[in-house]
Design brief:
heterotrimer, A alpha/beta (263), B mainly alpha (228), C mainly alpha (248), A: 263 residues, D-Maltodextrin-Binding Protein, domain 2, 2 domains, five-stranded mixed beta sheet, 14 strands, globular, C: 248 residues, mainly alpha, MetI-like fold
């Protein structure tokens, strides 16, 4: 009866193997020569995953430009939006470059760099379904928006008579909208174009009313763990440099035909 | 029909099977330790094992998985900081295997405990009369005979565990469910891909049941069945 | 150490999540119970055209993960324009309906097998005595077989219901805001895993113990005949608790 004797040994070996799998130890040099950058990969055109599995987009280009300026060796780490802050906190990466809007609430949990772009938000619905985006027009309707975001807060405050469907990532807004599980989607004015309106499934949908600038437009910034002031200062300095010598404008112009510099 | 995503799905199948197999091994370790602890004369050991099984049976597997994934990484970070090691990454695979193994270890504790109790006491007494140590009794007398009694519960746990591995996709593991999600999003055909992986899970279940019943027959050789 | 203000502030959200969890649990289990009884009778029938289809149903739903079943219904059904234009769509597009449908079918499958097993375990003497009295068909089931089987099934069924309560956490993956989703939100917003998941854990524990306690009371009443002087609780076979009835 060989089998029973081998089972505990096999079990122990497998457990050891499972534990040994990770163990990539990275001691952080105090000068931040090596930096891991968390990106989403699902927020076109700012962040997307190509068919070849490579990450690309405005966020990625900005991150790489800043790293080049800081002369730091950067690794991009892909992370689902839902777990972005927890992953930063768990040290899976050192900074988040994923179009994260700077809000007072988020500032309680993380440090932010200066804003690196700002675009308005807009409502998307079936073409002609709504004349404008007043609270009266949306009364009783279902608005789809990203959970735990400033846009969700805006909708909750301004559209008290509407139902709200919260989703875990921005592209899900358009998934649910296309499936008819909501009447209006509220998202980034740029992403709603690239991820939805410009695609076949977005046919028949259009913007409702004018674009909206939330909260005085504090823009999106790069997030750091609380206490990593040194890294934040380095990144801010790099951001200033990249904006000063025109590299930022060149990048932005290659993606957008309007001005995205934060005010 | 699958728009070229079939290889990706099958790749995910390997991950799913791997997670299930590794989790089973981990669960066996936890289960044996738990069973021995529950039958131990030491009250502290019995109490610890009782807390372990009660904790697991009182919480949803998804919540346990999230707790261990997030809490575990942070705890490891604190330990690593205190010891001066660098950052040690716990990838979703390890987190998933440890979590599922830990969870099903609690259920296997009951299975193994029942199986150990099913071995006739006279065998253990005879072994002790021969002067075998506790470890030797466990290894040479108990375990070989206990396997036969443990197989039904073991089989049940394996079947439930294979399906539980689907939850690991929620903490980011690139398994079959995750691949199906990606394929569904890219092709806008979620029904096709989710039904496809459902069929694959069903095949795993079927093959598992067939193999496990053969295993049970093999271990029951020479055991006279009761006849009325 | 523990930030109680965060916990206190999140309690209203947790209460809402608990409501969602309980409502989903109650409507799914109720549907499952009602459907399982006739299906179990069909499952143990000698006529293959009755028992085979039920076997296929239980095999498929017990052999695939609940998460995948939920994704097929929630994401998959939206793929078909025929369904989107049908009269069912206003229901089928709602997350709570998809969750109720999936969870009900799932628990029906497990419960059917539990009740079928209990029916098969009916002591043959009971059936013989009943037939001797002239009871047959529907009357036989209603007065003798089903009450007997349901009692026998109680320990395993209680495992199933508790397992179902745990499974409701999976509904959080399709936009339903239950206790697990609230915990993840609290964690994402405050980055305090102990506070967020600890509160959820306490809530689930409380629910589990309440339900187990409730079922023990039911067992005490309906399995009274199995009590002896030595043990006041009916003996449950080790296999009833040796594996989770379900997980996903």
């Amino acid at each position: 009866m060989h089998l029973p004797r081998r089972i505990p040994l096999v079990a122990l070996l497998s457990l050891a193997a499972a534990l040994a799998l990770p163990a990539t130890s990275q001691a952080q040099a105090p000068g931040w020569a090596k930096v891991r950058v968390g990106v989403e990969g699902n927020y076109p055109p700012f962040s997307k995953m190509g068919a070849d599995g490579k990450l690309a987009g405005f966020d990625i280009d900005i991150a790489l430009a800043l790293c080049a300026q800081m002369k730091a060796d950067c690794t991009l780490v892909q992370q689902e939006w839902d777990g972005m802050m927890p992953a930063l906190n768990a040290k899976k990466f050192d900074m988040i470059v994923a179009s994260m809007t700077i809000t007072d609430e988020r500032k309680k949990a993380a440090e932010f760099s200066d804003p690196y772009y700002s675009v308005p938000s807009r409502f998307i619905a079936k073409a002609g379904a709504f004349k404008d985006h007043t609270a009266a027009a949306f009364k009783g309707k279902k608005i789809i928006v990203l959970r735990n975001s400033p846009r969700a807060k805006y909708v909750a405050e301004q559209y008290k008579d509407a139902e709200v469907l919260l989703v875990a990532k921005e592209t899900d807004i358009y998934l649910e909208l296309a499936a008819g599980r909501g009447d209006i989607g509220f998202g980034s004015s740029v992403v709603s174009g690239d991820a939805f309106l410009k695609k076949p499934e977005g046919k028949g949908f259009a913007q409702v009313g004018a674009a909206i600038n939330l909260d005085g437009g504090s823009g999106v910034g790069i997030a750091f763990r609380k206490g990593d002031d040194a890294l934040r200062d380095k990144v801010n300095a790099a951001l200033k440099a990249v904006r000063a010598d025109g590299r930022y404008k060149k990048l932005a112009d290659s993606y957008f035909d309007f001005d995205v510099t934060p005010n | 029909m699958f728009h070229g995503y079939l290889p990706a799905i099958l790749g995910g199948l390997w991950v799913t099977l791997g997670v299930a197999a590794l989790s089973l091994s981990t669960a066996c370790v936890f289960g044996l330790l738990g069973a021995v602890a529950k039958l131990s004369p030491s009250r502290a050991a019995r109490w610890t094992a009782e807390v372990y099984t009660t904790l697991i049976r009182g919480l949803p597997e998804l919540v346990l998985m999230l707790m261990i994934f997030y809490g575990g990484q942070i705890a490891l970070n604190q330990l690593a900081d205190a010891q001066g090691w660098g950052y040690i990454d716990v990838p979703p695979l390890a987190a998933g295997v440890l979590t599922i193994g830990f969870i099903f270890g609690a259920y296997l504790t009951e299975t193994f405990r029942g199986a150990i109790l099913a071995v006739p006491r006279g065998q253990i007494e005879a072994a002790q009369a021969y002067g075998l140590s506790r470890g030797q009794v466990l290894r040479r007398i108990l375990l070989p005979q206990m396997v036969r009694h443990a197989i039904p519960g073991f089989a049940n746990n394996w079947l439930v565990m294979v399906k539980a591995t689907a939850l690991v996709s929620i903490i980011g593991l690139d398994d079959m469910v995750h691949r199906a999600n990606m394929a569904a999003a890219a092709t806008r055909e979620p029904f096709t891909f989710f039904v496809a992986i459902a069929v694959i899970y069903l095949m795993i279940t079927t093959v598992s049941i067939a193999l496990l019943s053969r295993l049970e027959k093999r271990f029951s050789l020479g055991v006279k069945a009761v006849s009325f | 150490m523990i930030d109680w203000t965060v916990i206190a502030g999140s309690l209203p959200e947790f209460a809402k999540g608990l409501k969602v969890c309980l409502i989903l649990l109650v409507i799914s289990v109720a549907t499952g119970f009602v459907l399982s009884v006739p299906l179990a009778v069909a499952r143990v029938s000698a006529r293959p055209w009755l028992s085979r289809p039920v076997w296929v149903f239980t095999y498929v739903f017990r052999g695939t993960p609940l998460l995948v079943q939920l994704f097929v219904v929630y994401y998959g059904f939206a793929q078909f324009p025929a369904l989107r234009d049908s009269v069912l769509w206003p229901l089928l597009r709602e997350a709570w309906f998809c969750a109720w449908l999936t969870f009900s079918l799932n628990t029906t499958a497990y419960t059917t097998e539990i009740f079928a097993g209990a029916l098969r375990a009916t002591p043959s003497g009971e059936v013989e005595a009943a037939r001797a009295y002239g009871l047959d068909g529907f009357k036989l089931y209603r007065r003798i077989l089903l009450p007997s089987a349901l009692r026998r099934a109680l320990p395993q069924y209680s495992n199933e219901v508790v397992g179902m309560m745990h499974a409701t956490a999976i509904a959080s993956t399709v936009t339903l805001v239950d206790v697990t989703r609230v915990a993840r939100d609290v964690y994402a917003n405050h980055l305090l895993p102990t506070e967020a998941f600890g509160t959820a854990a306490v809530i689930y524990f409380a629910l589990t113990f309440t339900m187990v306690g409730g079922f023990k009371l039911l067992e005490r009443r309906y399995l009274r005949h199995l009590r002896t002087e030595r043990n006041t609780t009916p003996s449950t076979p080790a296999s009833a608790t040796a594996a989770p009835a379900r997980v996903a």
